[in-house]
Amino acid sequence: MRRLLTVLAAVLLWGGVAQATVVLQFTPGTKDVAVGSTFTMDLRADVPNADALVGWGGTLLYDPSLVRLDGVSFGLLWDSALYLGGDTLVTLLLPNPTSPDPGASGQDLQLAQLTFACLGVGTTRLGMAIDLLDPVQGFMRFDGNYADLEIVDAEINQVTVPEPGTFLLLLTGLAGCLGLRRLRS
């Protein structure tokens, strides 16, 4: 019994040791955009050497009534051939015969640049979800296992910007009011 408790305690303590984690982030973290405009967000990752990636995939999360994904440009290390369009991003590491490393790792690693169109006024979170039942989603290491992942969402604020025509209409109305007042006096 004592041996069983010792083994159980060792397993629990070993499981509590911090594991290397891939940190996924959208930059900039907060962005203010005008309705009708387009804007870009970078998808970047901090990847420890122990978790060197050979592929990654996930589904973008955002409010489609406020923004629309118009384009994806993958970073220089990644192959865009697997991307079929839409909100699910999938890519593999491009082969590099001159590199001794079997995967991609490093700080602030460029995964993709996303181009969006702003459709309406409001605030939306930009994030990524990983479907564990989908074999092409996740952040795959060279050994075939998936890296632990921490996702840092971004916030997009859509604001209205008055059009020049609106200002012209306002000024015309004010001039008309002043003209009527002048005629009456």
Automatic annotation (TrEMBL):
Keyword field contains Signal: yes
For this protein, the record's Pfam families field holds: PEP-CTERM (PF07589)
Q: Keyword Nucleus on this protein?
A: no
Which GO molecular-function terms appear in the entry?
carbohydrate binding
Q: Which UniProt keywords apply?
A: Signal
Q: Per the database record, which ranges form the Ice-binding protein C-terminal domain?
A: 160-182
Which residue positions does the secretion signal occupy?
Answer: 1-20
Q: Which CDD domains does the UniProt entry name for this protein?
A: Type_II_cohesin
Q: Which domain of life is it from?
A: Bacteria
Q: From the Swiss-Prot or TrEMBL record, give the protein name.
A: Ice-binding protein C-terminal domain-containing protein
Organism expressing this protein natively: Geomonas silvestris
